[in-house]
Write a structure and sequence with these properties.
By secondary structure, this protein is α/β, with parallel strands linked by helices. The protein has eight helices and nine strands. Helix 3 packs across helix 5. The radius of gyration is 17 Å and the shape is globular.
């Protein structure tokens, strides 16, 4: 059995210690991306130090247990954006969370859909908060065809790598919704909602731009992109 240690600093017998958790706390950062994005992009922290090590451990080094603290930190980030007036209050309209999709190859390699699992935690945190609000997880995007590992690619190469490969899933794709939130794609299209694309790391913004573009073509106006970290 591998001894439990903090994913950020290695402190023994802690999954994610209080000091490292502070690196994901506070009002999310505004992120300027090289990709042409017409919506706000935020991240909880820069992709460095404990935050970067936690994301890396979660997605690539066998620490799926970090979905819980990362999802909770994203929920706190959304609360902070609401308090700052950058997002509508939860009581005003449903919150719809769209996970940035991973390729089938990446999901197989990791053994799980890492962004989707964080988004499920995030949705549960938002739905269970006081005051609460209607929340839906809308996995309406997918990656089709072959894509290269984006690590090391520049902005242009990342855009070319994803060109035409992020697509909408069929309209019958089920949504996971709390009471009062749209539970089908048809209902989502007809319900004014706060729509956020959620990703793990915002780098050039190419993935976020592709997601926002495809959702817009399908009739969904995205209010913003929220990442855990920004590189």
């Amino acid at each position: 059995m591998v001894p439990l240690e903090c994913a950020g600093c290695g402190r023994a017998r802690e999954r994610w210690c209080g000091r490292c958790a502070l690196t994901l706390a506070g009002v999310p950062l505004h992120v300027r991306t090289r990709a042409d994005l017409r919506v706000p992009v935020w991240a909880l922290a820069r992709h460095t130090g404990p935050a970067a090590r936690a994301v890396s451990a979660y997605k690539d080094r066998g620490r799926p247990d970090l979905a819980s603290p990362i999802g909770a930190a994203l929920a706190a980030g959304i609360d902070a954006l609401r308090a700052a007036g950058e997002l509508p209050e939860a009581s005003e309209r449903p919150t719809v969370l769209v996970p940035a999709p991973a390729s089938a190859r990446a999901r197989r390699r990791r053994g799980f859909d890492h962004v989707r699992e964080v988004v499920d935690v995030l949705a549960a945190e938002l739905a269970g908060s006081v005051p609460g609000g209607a929340v839906a997880v809308a996995p309406v995007l997918e990656v089709r065809g072959r894509v290269r590992d984006a690590a090391g690619l520049d902005a242009r190469a990342r855009t070319d790598n994803l060109s035409g490969r992020i697509r909408r899933r069929p309209e019958g794709t089920p949504l996971r919704a709390s009471p009062g939130a749209p539970s089908t794609v048809a209902a989502l299209l007809a319900t004014p909602s706060t729509i956020l694309v959620v990703d793990d790391v915002v780098t050039t913004g190419a993935t976020a731009a592709a997601c926002v573009g495809v959702l817009g073509e399908g009739g969904l106006r995205v209010d913003g992109v929220l990442g855990v970290t920004a590189a």
